[in-house]
Amino acid sequence: MYGKDLIAHLRESILDDVVLPQLWSDTELLRWLNYAEAQGCRRANLIIDSDNANDAGTSGTGGTAGQKPLCHISLIANQAVYAVSPKILQIRRCQLASMDYPLSGPVTDSELDDLFSGWRGTAGSVGTAGTGGVPTYFRYSGSSIVFILAPATNDTAYLTVSRLPLQSFGLDTSPEIDEQYHVGLCDWAAHLAYLKPDTETINLNMSKVYEQKFVEQFGSLPDAAVQGMRKMLSQKARMRPREFGS
Prior knowledge:
- There is one protein chain.
- By secondary structure, the protein is an alpha+beta fold.
- The protein has two domains: 3-46 and 169-221, no CATH class; 72-163, no CATH class.
- Helix content is 29%, strand content 15%.
- It has six helices and seven strands; from the N terminus they run ααββββαβββααα.
- The protein has helices at 3-15, 26-44, 109-115, 185-193, 204-218, 224-231; strands spanning 48-49, 72-75, 81-83, 88-96, 137-140, 144-148, 155-163.
- Strands 1, 2, 4 and 7 form a four-stranded antiparallel beta sheet that branches. The protein has a three-stranded antiparallel beta sheet with strand order 3-6-5, with no helix packed on it.
- The model is unreliable at 125-130 and 232-246 (pLDDT under 50).
């Protein structure tokens, strides 16, 4: 569905706002629908991506300026830490072009303490005697990915990620999430619409009703602590019993 179709559904089927002058503008409703798409992704990981090399940059730069690595990272010998796109919610898989199997991770600090004693301050940057090694694990902090060990040679890392939409949708474009979830976005937009501070628009009871309808479809929004754990969620099923550096 296009943005204009979702706005029409909001006005006709939820907000009862078809008679002029309308209480909510198209600009407001479209903005809240975009908020809803991001909320859905944060709650339910609706977009899984392994194809897009970079994000879309920022609205202020446009083009390729301001882009950050999304699913492809060019690795430099002996460098372990790389900034990644803020659009990433989780890194689900990481495999180097030079390797036949994915790295284990993302792993937490406590897991690394058990898996590789002494990794702090050394393994996260360079290997023994200041040279890179064979990466075995990766950590994800929410803004960067760390390879342990740092790669000994230039390479490319291919990621599978859960992410936010790359761009906002407009009146004549569609949300990036699957179409089966499009109408559900209207519930979050209605929740916000009924919070508009005007005597003809504010309705806290209806706002709560539509917030709950959205939660029933997409789940609750994780708090900061849970989001942090999700970012570092260990993929134990993929962790291989290999010796470090082998």
